Amino acid sequence: MRRAIRVLVLVLIAPSAASACTTFCLSLDGRTVFGANYDWDTGVALMMVNKRSVAKVALTGRPARWTSRFASITVNQYGRDFPTGGMNEAGLVVALMALDVTRYPAVDSRPSVGILGWIQYQLDLSATIDEVIVQSEGIRIAGGMGLHYLVADRTGRAATIEYLDGALVVHRDAALPVAALTNNTYDDSVRYLRTIAGFGGTRPVPSGIDSLERFARAASMMRQVSDSADLVNSAFSILQSVRQPGYTRWSIVYDSDQGAVYFRTDRNSSVRWLSFDAMDPMCASPVRILDINQAGSGDMSAALADYTPDANTHLVYTAFSESPSLGGVSEEDRQATAMHPEGDICLQRRSRSVRP
């Protein structure tokens, strides 16, 4: 157990030039979508349909324990229960981005989760950004690479979650003038944005791909969106503009209103989607999985397969081997990480398909 905990602390611990993601939330005329580019060394991943009523334990010291309230669709690169982002059936979306200046809280009496487990924890338990913030105050992130998170709910409200100087820092509502996030602190990003034409400054909208430039360009393009009926395509256009050639592995648009996740990858540029309407949310039926790079286009629900420990093990081993910072992780540690979700326990045996 101690060795496996060390592995999860190591996951994504070393920032690289590729750890530069971009996220934003578009809300117009009562419609809400959330866009996310994932920029990293490897593009291997499984989409996973996670279930309600599953008892879980974090893979950390003094672990958090919880039972999932909501089903979710997540993107998992380092194994089940450790997503890089996702959306639950209540319409809550969570995505991560690298933030070098992050400093997580010191060890205290609170239970802990890892940097990726935090995402699954919130998707399992929270329906709104306010619930995410309350949950964040009650747990501690147990180290790892510096990250911050953008979260949004079905109402279009969004919030940034950062850990600076050991304290939780949140921006929402009036303190969140632009619902976007890249790889600087939110305050530094907004300070830069105010130097750009249209936001109080005189500089032209930048065309580069560093963090502040991507933030400003995304914010500028968000202002130009005027058709609420075409928000998904508008979000993909913004994601295309801020992508990093050679490093953007996938672009995802979460449609909270429709309960659908649209995605394309560097290996399959066709837009594909999964929808909660086609899923059984109850844990009496198996977790379902889909290779994010699967051939095809359009609705991919027919291509979903049942989760197996072997599929998770293959994912973990491949992702570790394709991540330079994790190349030296031992066989024992990889196996312990891959087998961790086998401790999840389904607490409900009835199955029904209902979205809240």
The CATH topology is given as Penicillin V Acylase, Chain A
Q: Report mean pLDDT, rounded to a whole number.
A: 92
Specify the CATH architecture. 4-Layer Sandwich
Decide which structural class fits the backbone: alpha+beta
Estimated radius of gyration: 19 Å
Number of domains: 1
Q: Identify low-pLDDT runs.
A: 1-7, 9-17, 351-356
* Biggest beta sheet attributes: 9 strands, antiparallel
What is the CATH homology-level superfamily?
A: Penicillin V Acylase, Chain A
Descriptive labels:
356 residues, alpha+beta, Penicillin V Acylase, Chain A, nine-stranded antiparallel sheet, seven-stranded mixed sheet, 8 helices, 21 strands, disordered N terminus, disordered C terminus
Sum this structure up briefly.
The protein has a single domain (2-346), classed as Penicillin V Acylase, Chain A (4-Layer Sandwich), CATH 3.60.60.10. It is built from eight helices and 21 strands. The chain has helices at 2-10, 117-125, 129-138, 186-193, 211-224, 231-241, 309-321, 331-339; strands at residues 22-28, 31-39, 46-50, 54-57, 65-67, 72-76, 83-88, 93-98, 112-113, 140-141, 147-152, 158-164, 167-172, 180-181, 248-255, 260-265, 272-275, 288-291, 298-299, 305-306, 345-346.
